[in-house]
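Ticket 4471: requesting a sanity check on a complex prediction with zinc ion. Repro inputs:
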Amino acid sequence: MTETLTLLGLESSCDDTAAAVVRQQAEAPAEVLASIVFGQTELHRAFGGVVPEIAARAHAEKLDICVADALAEAGVTLADLDAIAVTAGPGLIGGVMSGVMCAKGIAAATGLPLVGVNHLAGHALTPRLTDGIAYPYLMLLVSGGHCQFLIARGPEDFTRLGGTIDDAPGEAFDKTARLLGLPQPGGPSVQAEAERGDPMRFRFPRPLLDRQDCNFSFSGLKTALLRMRDQITAEKSGLTLQDRADLCAGFQTAVADVLAKKTQRALQIYLEENPSEPVLAVAGGVAANSAIRAQLETVCAENNTRFVAPPLHLCTDNAAMIAYAGLERFKAGARDGMDLAARPRWPLDQSSPAMLGSGRKGAKA
Ligand code: KG4
Ligand code: ZN
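Returned structure tokens:
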């Protein structure tokens, strides 16, 4: 039997309102028929961060338009769908509730089954959508709100090997940019500066490398940067363009070094399972950084492990990953009812203790 499944996915857990349609024919690779993302950056710009109430209202206003656009672009109607997948957490509760209520409304009106999806599972399963990789694989999620290693064994089976105990790396890039007067988001602007800087001039710390675990700490880098910036300013009454580029290069190299060394440790643990075709996959905006990517690629090559980095628009927040994760859950028999709850917190690995801090508070995953 060749079964074709078509799912609508909804995402609204932070500051992107997104809807997508994903289709899979039997065991063929899944296809993204449409992926619409409405960002809210402009709405929050004046506040220096995401304002939950503004985000929730914008999601509620945009979700139905987003769904209509996704269906139109995919060339399907609600009657062509097999189920609706929706992010049910973790995230900003008002936004998650907007998405869950929208999905319930469509499910009630059409009789379609509803599948709640963990947003982090969406990120973690993306390399299966884009590259069709098999379980188990090692996942490094590096975004503005998260930093963790997961061994993905199934659509709902994840082992967390470690993560950040304070800031996420993207957050560290954003704060660095702010301290140096560079535009947001900080990642791309710090990377551009770093490319013309000397990474050896300033020596940044390599936090937690003395510990044999897979945990990270990035908040000390920002403090180190602040100290160096203030010292130069005191000595020369200002930063030159070269000083700024050198600070960015030193900072970026420290982040890349720490990520690479900890990846080496996480790989050792994962490789002990003897996967037949070992894979390290990355997701999240920071995975776009070419210096970080190059170091991770080297670690993988040294360990005969394939490196998979999905295209950036599927690495950052989107609804195609939610539709796809929903499709995997749906195929495994999962169905949620009208009592599906919106959850602000929802660790992927329930057996792993919650980390204090672990990325930007309450916001983007
Ligand atoms: O995954 P994402 O779009 O959203 C979150 O879920 O956080 O990641 C956004 C983060 C921002 O902090 C941004 O500065 C960072 O990813 N980022 C980068 C680069 N491009 C985006 N960080 C380092 N280098 C980059 N090239
Ligand atoms: Zn996310």
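Notes from triage: The domain at 135-310 is CATH 3.30.420.40 (Nucleotidyltransferase; domain 5). Leaving this open until the requester confirms.
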